[in-house]
Amino acid sequence: MVIQIDGGSSTNKGAQLMLYAVLQEIQSKHPAARIYLNNEHSDMTALRNTFKGLDIRKRQSNRWRNIVSKLKLASLAYKIYKPLSWRFSLRVPYKGVDILLNIGGFQFGDQWKHDTNSNASWKHYLSKMKEYGTKIIFLPQALGPFEKKGSREIVRILGAYSDIVMARDQVSYNYIDALHPSKAKVSVFPDFTATVAGIPSSQSELAKGKVCIIPNSKMISQGINTEEDFVNGIIRIIDHIQNVGRQVVLLNHEGPGDYRLCQSINENLNNKVEILQSNNALVTKGIIAASYLTISSRFHGVANALSSGVPCLATSWSHKYQKLMEDYGQKECMIDYSDKDDAVSKIEKLLNSEYNNDIRSTLKIAREKIIGINGDMWEAVWNS
Length: 384
What we know:
- The chain is an alpha/beta fold.
- It has 2 domains: about 1-195 and about 370-384, 3-Layer(aba) Sandwich (Rossmann fold), CATH 3.40.50.2000; about 200-370, Glycogen Phosphorylase B (Rossmann fold), CATH 3.40.50.
- Helix content is about 50%, strand content about 15%.
- The strands form 2 sheets. Strands 1, 2, 3, 4, 5, 6, 7 and 8 form an 8-stranded parallel beta sheet that branches. Strands 11-10-9-12-13 form a 5-stranded parallel beta sheet, with helices on both faces.
- Helix 2 links the parallel strand 2 and strand 3.
- The longest helix has about 30 residues, at about 355-384.
């Protein structure tokens, strides 16, 4: 069997975690498969060391992808001579692939640029893969809304050429179900990273028993908060937590943008805290798993906490956060840093040891249920 995985990388912790979850499943069910990773960045050495015995290969070189992206060759070629543009696209169809698993996370909706060139690239790619006999499956991801013309067109393309599109929540399902021409192809399954365990490290020791706060630059870029309000809101929360005697760590879950926020927050604190970070998604999950309470603006920071049995409060720039919380029975655990009184009230409840333990028990039960549903998801993948 030849399996190609689109999306997933070593630079984004959520994408890395989803990639680990998929490789973990393949190692369990199809260890003899040949696996091609079709993404821009993956640490092949780390993956092969983690998944010993799996035949993991890389599709295109990073150098070629970087040149294509930097010079915008696909867009330029599309304007000059449309058929030529596919040679420069980052979506290149390959023959001989039995199953294509797309683990994009969140890539279709009005938040993204679905212009004529991008949609044409998707159509060419998926239609050719289908022509080559490949089964095309989009694993659970957030979807929508689809109000813009280009966004609605990408749904039609997915409907025409995919075998299964899995929405990660009911809101995403409703968005795509309203437009998808073949409703039998659309299903709902939750985030599938609950089966991946974090690993202990020296950094998880630093986080042990503390409140772990995870900023997200998207809260600013998506217009939810100004940077000043976002930073000041976190500072007020940290001050309160420290004043009641609980220690705090900041976790850079992603890259430079989030790290800059962590630094800005820390520089303005009366009592400085540790800033933790790792390039390894499993180490990152281990840090979160060691915490007493996590307050996260990163989606997979929330997912990591909940699936590790750690009480969590979340801020949100997308419906996917609220729906994830509901999957774990924590729908009341959304906060807004601009509403200090509400945030403090919820934090104080979760700092109480008895209540904290009760939530941990609830999360453990929810995790087992979600893992069972994920098992049904993989049955649908392998048997479709």
